[in-house]
Amino acid sequence: xxxxxxxxxxxxxxxxxxxxxxxxxxxxxxxxxxxxxxxxxxxxxxxxxxxxxxxxxxxxxxxxxxxxxxxxxxxxxxxxxxxxxxxxxxxxxxxxxxxxxxxxxxxxxxxxxxxxxxxxxxxxxxxxxxxxxxxxxxxxxxxxxxxxxxxxxxxxxxxxxxxxxxxxxxxxxxxxxxxxxxxxxxxxxxxxxxxxxxxxxxxxxxxxxxxxxxxxxxxxxxxxxxxxxxxxxxxxxxxxxxxxxxxxxxxxxxxxxxxxxxx
Length: 263
Fold this sequence. Notes:
This protein is 68% helix and 2% strand. It contains 13 helices and 2 strands, in the order ααααββααααααααα. The longest helix is centred in the middle third of the chain and has 25 residues, at 85-109.
């Protein structure tokens, strides 16, 4: 990070505190799948790599733990979470419920400027669909969802979403995709089309359609949890049935009907 933080005269290029710079870098690496689940984040190694003192690294690691993107193990250190199937199912169903609500509120409140910003992110995502830079694509994906949350104009909802999304193993799923080069192009294409339909619905102010598109997107994610993370489908369906009365219909059929038909 030395060249990213200090200019040739030793002056600070960014006005952010150094701990924030380190936090953002580690955050991008985790959500981009550059660190594997269970991988230790060694304070001394990171400080040496970035050319900074241990203090901002320690503070950044503490923030990652507080945000749920890392976990502190007493007497051992900090590592990327290695979630159980139950934890992933809990995170999935809470995100499902929260995302459906978020896109509805965003559809009512999104400004033209915010809509244009989301469309710009979509354009950058589209250019990465056929590339091998899954990490960059995932980073833009995060920016897109955060942008939708910002359009709700609800600070508490933004904080709650941050806690939930940081416990959701999307970085694991993108890591799985990196290991499957033949599957990568069609999966990224499908993911892009899902997000495109979602943004178009939110930007047009169609709250019902936006909620349906989000449900469809999250059910694609559910299938990936089953196929790539070995989360039992029965477990995910059971968790979803617990909140089915709160969920919107998808594709013209109620979620409760869809789940009931699987039994």
